[in-house]
Amino acid sequence: MIAYFKLGKVRGLSLEINTEFGAKPVYKKTQHGCEIVVDVPYTQIIYTSGRWTPYNMKSKDVANDDTCTSEKAKQV
User: Fold this and answer.
1) What is the model's pLDDT at position 58?
2) Would you kindly state where each structural domain of the chain is located, as residue ranges?
3) Is the pTM of this model over 0.85?
4) DSSP state letter for 20
5) Euclidean distance between the first and final Cα of the chain, in Å?
6) What is the 3-state secondary structure (H, E, C) of 29-68?
7) Hey, is 19 helix, strand or coil?
8) pLDDT for 15-69, tens place per residue?
9) 15-35 burial code (b ≥16 CB/10 A, e <16)
10) How far is CA 5 from CA 1, 8, 11, 22, 31, in A?
11) How far apart are CA 3 and CA 31, in angstroms?
């Protein structure tokens, strides 16, 4: 089952429950650019922050500010 919640214009929360994910890890938080991925038993939660901007909607002022797209994937 997948549920997606739109939080404003560019923020979103995705919740996926699937038995194929398994019981482990009990808790794992990973960040990929502007997305935070939280893995818990049988569930994956993905939060896309408001810092993310679609490429075609970027203005000239923020076109050079790729803080979300240029960050290397971090595991917290």
Assistant:
1) 57
2) 1-53
3) no
4) G
5) 26
6) EEEECCEEEEEECCEEEEEECCCCCCHHHCCCCCCCCCHH
7) helix
8) 999 999 999 889 999 998 889 999 999 999 999 987 766 666 655 554 444 556 5
9) eeeeeeeeeeeeeeeebebbb
10) 13, 9, 9, 24, 19
11) 20
